[in-house]
Amino acid sequence: MAVTDPTLEIETAMHAAGARFVIGIDEVGRGAIAGPVAVGLCVVDVTVGAHPEGLRDSKLLSEKRRVALAPLTAEWAVHTSVGLASALEVDRIGIVAALGLAARRGLVALHEAGADIGASVVLLDGSHDWLNPALSSPLRVQTRVKADRDCSSVAGASVVAKVHRDSLMIDADSKQPGYGWAGNKGYGSADHFAAIAQLGATDLHRRTWLKTSA
């Protein structure tokens, strides 16, 4: 199947229907066994123009390309932010609630940066609205399967979230070596599980997710 670039077609339709801003949202690190879950948010309006050349869902890009595109995406968008929920929070409240918590933190950061959340529609990757249950006031949310592939704002959100989370895991690897986080980014590779068996789990591990006891 050929890979196609995302477009602003969906966002443009939302603007035409009355949304001043569209907030593309995507998550990164949902399936990891270590590190936070990260939620990227990318705000666009009718003035943003074409997205940076080569922007795609972060899973379709090399690490080098993602790192290059993240600042370009931040410059292109009206606002971007990344919200996090820690491994401990994932253990305490579960992954879906942790996604909502991370997104809420990202929305607060957007608000503090001057984004008009109330005049926005959220374009959420996937088929399930996990965002509104985490909010005290509901937002207008439209879910879309493969939005990270098809919609520029969500692709942008995926890139900024992935680069931000990867940088945290690379930094953590330098402080707590032995788990290979700079390479596996906290996902459950065979070498990662072997390291846990040898060294034990850390505060960055989602202990309820581990198949090997600490």
Automatic annotation (TrEMBL):
Domain RNase H type-2: 20-214
Cofactor(s) needed: Mg(2+); Mn(2+)
GO BP annotations, alphabetical order: DNA replication, removal of RNA primer; mismatch repair
Catalytic reaction(s) noted: Endonucleolytic cleavage to 5'-phosphomonoester
EC number: 3.1.26.4
Binding-site residues, a divalent metal cation: D26, E27, D125
InterPro entries linked: RNase_HII, RNase_HII/HIII, RNase_HII/HIII_dom, RNaseH-like_sf, RNaseH_sf
Cofactor descriptive note: Manganese or magnesium. Binds 1 divalent metal ion per monomer in the absence of substrate. May bind a second metal ion after substrate binding.
Keywords: Cytoplasm, Endonuclease, Hydrolase, Manganese, Metal-binding, Nuclease
GO MF annotations, alphabetized: metal ion binding; RNA binding; RNA-DNA hybrid ribonuclease activity
Similarity-based family: Belongs to the RNase HII family.
PANTHER family named among the record's database cross-references: RIBONUCLEASE H2 SUBUNIT A, RIBONUCLEASE HII
The protein, known as: Ribonuclease
Species, as recorded: Conyzicola nivalis
